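Forum > Structural Biology > Help requests

Title: Can anyone predict the 3D structure of Cyclin C-terminal domain-containing protein?

Hi all, first post here. I have the sequence for Cyclin C-terminal domain-containing protein but no way to get a structure on my laptop. I'd be grateful if someone could post the structure tokens.
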Amino acid sequence: MVAASAVFAARCTLNKTPIWNETLKLHTGYSKEQLMDCAKLLVSFHLSIRGEKLEVLYRKYSDPERGAVAVLSPAKNLMSEGGGIDLSVVENNI
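Reply #1:
Sure, ran it for you. Structure tokens for Cyclin C-terminal domain-containing protein below:
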């Protein structure tokens, strides 16, 4: 579930459309609704990375040789969909 949620969150961050489709659902076994809470949790980590003790990782992944993925804006639109994060869903599927 975490891997599928990471793909879902990444597609949201990169503004891919559709965000989730039948092919992704078929290969992962998860629907968009099943991934939402875990993906929101991942995006919340992305939102909080600056200013934390992870500054070294931020600098490392800001490098263009690594795709500069750390400088991408988090998928804030995902955070506003469907309310808060239910951590029990994530914990029960890890």
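The mean pLDDT is 82. The helical segments are 2-13, 22-28, 32-48, 55-60, 76-79, 87-92.
Shout if anything looks off.
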